[in-house]
Amino acid sequence: MTLWPAELSSPEAAGSLLLCAAQLAAGFALGSRLGRGASSADRWVLVWLCYDALVHFTLEGPFVYFSLVGNVADSDGIIASLWKEYGKADARWLHSDPTIVSLEMLTVVLDGLLALLLIYAILKEKYYRHFIQITLCVCELYGGWMTFCPDWLIGSPNLNTSNWLYLWVYLVFFNGVWVLIPGLLLWQSWIGLKKMHQKEMKPGKKFR
User: Fold this and answer.
1) Per residue in 72-93, pLDDT tens?
2) DSSP β-bridge partners for residue 90
3) Can you give the pTM of this predicted structure?
């Protein structure tokens, strides 16, 4: 008897999770290095942004390429293998679903560049930091909604929820991270803008 879950024993699942872990480690290392002079909160924001940009450019970028020249199911290589593994949980990623590909094109180009711009804005303490942060977070949340809502409305025929790994790790955890953290960053921007507004208020004026 083994305590190691059978689902994780497959080379594809183990390799995909290791690749994701390697990207997280790279994002942590880069964000920590860039944020040495920043506040504790902003160091963690930079870690997230570095990881976010890495995922957009090195995972989702190749997915868009595979989908425009063919599809993931017929592609080869390490990144294609990762998407084939994820495709066991959501079949739309295997066969160039137009909604998914359209969203990913925007995600790679717009969200990826916004993440880089936000890193710059934080490091250089630019006045537009929270504008970019709010824009990026809204884009991330909108992308998540449009990824799943169309399938939910037709009964989720493409989602495989019969397996704990596919449901709780691939679908819930990996997608939930892009809901939870953008939500927290929106809250950070709300607090930051509130503090800036308080500083600009005239003495004696009540703030609401």
Assistant:
1) 999 999 999 999 999 999 999 9
2) 159
3) 0.90
